[in-house]
């Protein structure tokens, strides 16, 4: 997995969950991705969503096809 890099956030999320474009006067990082595709999700919020999803769902592992057929 690659390391995250620092970026200027040009999309500001408001309390009502809407997005607002806020371009800084001095741009000293690469914001091309955000300009082309919009809001770039924060890495930490992405990790939190993954953890919450992993804690919510359980994976069932079957021994073989016969074991699988017991549950359908």
Describe what is shown at a glance.
The protein has one domain. Helices cover 35% and strands 8% of the residues.
Fold and architecture overview:
By secondary structure, this protein is mainly alpha-helical. It has one domain. It has 3 helices and 2 strands; from the N terminus they run E-E-H-H-H. The protein has helices spanning 32-37, 43-56, 65-69, and strands at residues 11-13, 19-21. It has a two-stranded antiparallel ribbon. Strand 1 and strand 2 form a beta hairpin. The relative contact order is 0.13. The mean pLDDT is 78.
Largest sheet data: 2 strands, antiparallel
Q: What's the gyration radius in Å?
A: 20 Å
Give a count of the beta strands, DSSP E runs of length 2 or more: 2
DSSP summary: helix tally? 3
Helix content: 25-40%
Q: Which range does the strand content fall in?
A: 5-15%
Structural category = mainly alpha
Write down the domain tally. 1
* Element pattern in H and E: EEHHH
* Average residue-wise pLDDT: 78
Low-confidence stretches: none
- The outline comes out as elongated
Key descriptive features of the protein:
8% strand; mainly alpha; 72 residues; elongated; two-stranded antiparallel ribbon
């Amino acid at each position: 997995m690659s390391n995250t890099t620092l970026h200027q956030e040009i999309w500001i999320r408001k309390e009502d969950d809407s997005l607002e474009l806020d371009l800084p006067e001095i741009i000293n990082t690469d914001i091309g991705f955000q300009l082309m595709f919009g809001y770039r999700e924060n890495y930490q919020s992405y990790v939190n969503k993954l953890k919450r999803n992993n804690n919510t769902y359980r994976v069932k592992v079957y021994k073989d096809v016969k074991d699988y057929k017991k549950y359908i």
